[in-house]
Amino acid sequence: MNTWSGTWVAERLGVELAGDERLRGMLGLALRRNPKRAHLLVSNLLGKHVPQTPSVVYGHGVELGRRVRELLGDAAAAQAVVLGYAETATGLGHSVADGLGTAPYLHSTRRPVAGVATAGGFEESHSHATSHLLLPEDPSLLAGDGPLVLVDDEFSTGNTVLNTVRDLHARYPRERYVVVALVDMRSAADAGRLEEFAREIGARIDLVTVASGTVRLPDGVLEKGQALVARFETAAAPSGPSTQFPAPLEGESVTGDSQGAGRTADPRARGTARPAPTGPQSPGTVTRVGLRWPARLPDGGRHGFTPTHRAQLDAALPAMADRIAAALPEDAHRVLILGFEELMYAPLRLAAELERTTTAEVRYSTTTRSPVLAVDDPGYAIRTRLVFPAHDDPVDGPGERYAYNVAGAGFDAVVAVVDSAADTPALHAPDGLLARLAEHTPHVLLAVVPSYVPAAPAGAQDAPERPVTMLPEPLRGPAFSSYAPEEVGWLLQDLSDVTLEAPTEEREEAIQSGGAHYAESLPVEYQPSEQYQQLFHNALDASAARLAHAVGVVTEVVLAERPHSRLRPSGGISMPRPVLVSLARAGTPVGILMRRWAQHRHGLDLPHYAVSIVRGRGIDANALRWLAAHHDPRDVVFVDGWTGKGAIARELAQAVEEFEKVHGVSGFDPEIAVLADPGSCVRTYGTREDYLIPSACLNSTVSGLISRTVLRADLVGPDDYHGAKYYRELAHSDLSVAFLDAVSARFDEVTEAACAEAKDLLAADRTPTWAGWAAVERISEEYGIHDVNLVKPGVGETTRVLLRRVPWKVLARAGAGSDLDHVRLLAEQRGVPVEEVPDLPYTCVGLIHPRYTRGATGADGTAVTR
């Protein structure tokens, strides 16, 4: 009787797999190096971690697609679009689209592509790499009202699907969604969440799977799993001339390849049929195979793949498979076709065709980004692991990549199929993938598929670009804002005469239902009570020196790291002259204070502008065009008030990259300089402490009487700046300049200490750890929210929740003092509980009501009141 490949984990961690009888044949268990989830469900049908017969992999996907077509009916199926998830389900999703027959296919990607605008994005919170992009060549691909079919390998909690539908429904609402997966492993509570969400958005969501069940996890399984992974990986790491292992439990053996050495235990000792190495082996040969891939045929679904493309591929497959077969050695009886991360479909179809036309035993799998522990035991799903460096110049930087269950599997030849973007020197390096494969098989073949580059839209090259000179000059006070004209120029359009405000509860319901984006309206400006205003003044008096110190630190760091010299028109070299660009509106007071410090300390008159950035929509591209026309982009320093979990830092990095690709303007550095970085999301900061910045206490009355920025299609055209309002009627309550003056008055007394700390910071390792993002994900799951966008960490973000959103509760670090006086007052006024939490990484965290509709109640039954 065969041993189930989940036995090893189940026995050590108490993990149980319950449900359909087929589950154990479909899934094994492994442990992964991931702080969010210890176990990994390893599919035997997907062709990712476990080499599988290609006809089995492809057949399951096609059959699921046929079932979707039967569910929808021919008419609805003809209007459907299929969306697969990177990286694991790109091939499965494509196969489902093939089963549907008439559906175009798109998969998400983690690789930005030059010249292709983002049509959406979402987070996969439990994944090793969380951020997904949608980059269709045809912008209308997702805009139809036909069914959207979402395909993933497993449906574990439903969070990824909820995040996807939430994002896409806000952009392209439709009436029907179909979720497809090999296995549905949700709990009853998670299943209920999907049904509830479908009711909230007024859409139908169906589910099609091969099998269903649940994973039962005992208490403490994450910690136990992490300890087990640490024990084995520490033991497997090389130590001098030999590798040390822990004393194995009965029947255990661990691979010793965590550094890429590829050592494997003798599989015969485990009772398997795989041949073991017999003494030292010479590296195998590496041969390149020309596929003659058809011109302009996409390599996959990253930018869309139509039924016409499918017919083109079907016609070309036999000849391409013949070229691979001709390059294989005559005695090759067992062959692996190895795909590359998101490139799963093309290798799968090649493998299936090779299986159909040759007598060799063909298997298929792909490389992956996910770090998984390898244990050479029949009861464990990941027997061996090859480690090699990334070879496609990934946007998130270099790192390890993996190929599982390849070493020791007795393959006579391995055909590595990569796209041309990944055919780099790193692929061919002595420690690269090809060399690793050659250590374990006598023949390695390399087949390269051209990376598809979408064509420019028809007429795009001939269409006249709007001259930069037509873009308006920045707005300045006193006509727009209560700041002096030299303090800041606003690259915005004035929407003061437009009614944009809506009640907080009404906005929250619209935002969470997908009916509106938060930037399409404005909250009603909070009018502070006398008691609250006194709290602001008390906080300012107590923290002005601390704020001045942080302003000095961050400004000195910026000036030291922006040493661009410019030739004066009259000759000679000018002083370094950064251009401060604050992210409106919270960043604008900080930008003004930094400008004042540079003037006070160094006599520099730095330009300062404010621009709009909107989560999920990016930065104002027209504002960047104006800046590029008037300043060197290399001189621009983006400024914000503080970081929470780092969402804006990520948004800015993506937006700047997209701007460079679309407009051909390079040089903008997406690094943000902030006053406070409690989330450890940036390199340039004044402090990483989470304390009250008094400007967070108020809205427009401490921000030049300017509203939040607005981005709405009927008000902001493609050639317009984002908009904002100037609340002139609140001049009697304006404290904007008073705030700046109170902090600036303390510059002299903090100069020496601030300059000393800046010097120390410049010499220190300031690499972001993104600890804040990790904490937010943990809180989101612990409190059953399942959406990181509803968790707002830090004093500043918590204040915003209480002023602008529908708060559910506030988490406060036990013992937090006067920094939270205003938070406690606002929470009391809105009937929001404040819960003290030990060891909270922030001073406080604000939780937006996770399922808000008017009349909603909190988990404790308390009504959410205005």
Tell me about this structure:
The protein has 866 residues and is of the alpha/beta class. Helix content is 32%, strand content 19%. The chain contains 22 helices and 35 strands. The protein has a six-stranded mixed beta sheet, with helices on both faces. Strands 20-25-24-28-29-30 form a six-stranded parallel beta sheet, sandwiched between helices. Strand 14, helix 10 (345-357) and strand 15 form a beta-alpha-beta unit. Helix 14 (530-561) crosses helix 18 (736-744), helix 15 (587-602) runs parallel beside helix 18 (736-744) and helix 21 (795-804) runs parallel beside helix 22 (821-830). The longest helix has 32 residues, at 530-561. The protein starts with 6 loop residues before the first helix and ends in an 18-residue tail after the last strand. Residues 124-130, 238-252, 256-280, 458-469, 564-576 and 853-866 have low confidence and may be disordered. Residues 26-213 form the Orotate phosphoribosyltransferase-like domain.
Outline the fold blueprint.
Elements: H1 7-13, E1 16-19, H2 23-26, E2 27-31, E3 39-43, H3 54-72, H4 74-77, E4 81-84, H5 90-100, E5 105-107, E6 120-123, E7 131-134, E8 148-155, H6 159-171, E9 176-184, H7 188-201, E10 204-216, H8 221-236, E11 238-239, E12 242-243, E13 285-289, H9 307-327, E14 334-339, H10 345-357, E15 361-366, E16 385-389, E17 400-404, E18 413-419, H11 425-428, H12 433-438, E19 443-449, E20 489-490, E21 493-494, E22 501-502, H13 504-513, E23 522-523, H14 530-561, E24 579-583, H15 587-602, E25 608-611, E26 613-614, E27 618-619, H16 621-630, E28 636-642, H17 647-663, E29 672-676, E30 684-687, E31 723-724, H18 736-744, H19 747-763, H20 771-782, E32 791-793, H21 795-804, E33 807-813, H22 821-830, E34 834-837, E35 844-848
Parallel strand pairs: 4-5, 4-8, 8-9, 9-10, 13-19, 14-15, 14-18, 18-19, 20-25, 21-31, 22-23, 24-25, 24-28, 28-29, 29-30, 33-34
Antiparallel strand pairs: 1-10, 2-3, 6-7, 11-12, 16-17, 26-27, 32-35, 33-35
Helix pairs in contact: 3-5, 3-10, 9-10, 14-15, 14-18, 14-19, 15-18, 21-22
